[in-house]
Structures are given as C-alpha cells and as structure tokens.
Amino acid sequence: MTPGSDAVMCLSCHYAHAGPYPDMLRWDYRTCVAGGGENPKCGCFVCHTTKD
Q1: Which residues pair with 36 in a beta bridge?
Q2: Are 52 and 36 in contact (CB under 8 A)?
Q3: Would you state the pLDDT for residue 16?
Q4: E strand or H helix at 12, and its extent?
Q5: How many separate domains does the chain show?
Q6: Which terminus of the chain is less hemmed in, N or C, by CB atoms within 10 Å?
Q7: What are phi and psi of 49, to 5 degrees?
C-alpha cells in the first residue's frame, strides 16, 4: 500500500467469501504478537509498518 493514495476497505483485511483463517481474515492473526514475536509482518503490520 502507498500512504495517501490507497483506499482501505473491508476487503483489505478480509476475504469476501471465506478463507483459510478465522473471521475470513487474510492473515492468521493467531501467529501475531503485538510488538514483536517471530512473525512481525503479519496481520495489521503488513500495511501499518510505520506504526511498529
């Protein structure tokens, strides 16, 4: 995503018709650890890299 030019909407984070992860999410948030962990670029942090 490019800050200031990309639109964020439901489909930015969710699949429209099911997916492999809970709540139709595009990432497996069960492996995410806020503020660190083994997979720091998952879930919200895929796009929100400046918020680390």
Answers
A1: 33
A2: no
A3: 92
A4: helix 10-13
A5: 1
A6: C
A7: -75, -25
Residue 5 inside a domain? The answer is: no
Rounded to an integer, what distance in angstroms lies between the CA atom of residue 1 and that of residue 44? 12
26 burial class (0-12, 13-18, 19+ CB within 10 angstroms)? middle
Tokens describing residue 39: 């997979």
- Terminal C-alpha separation, the chain: 16
Q: Is residue 1 part of a domain?
A: no
Residues of the chain with pLDDT under 50: 52
Total residue count of the chain as it appears in this document? 52
Amino acid letter for position 20: P
Parent domain of 19: 10-51
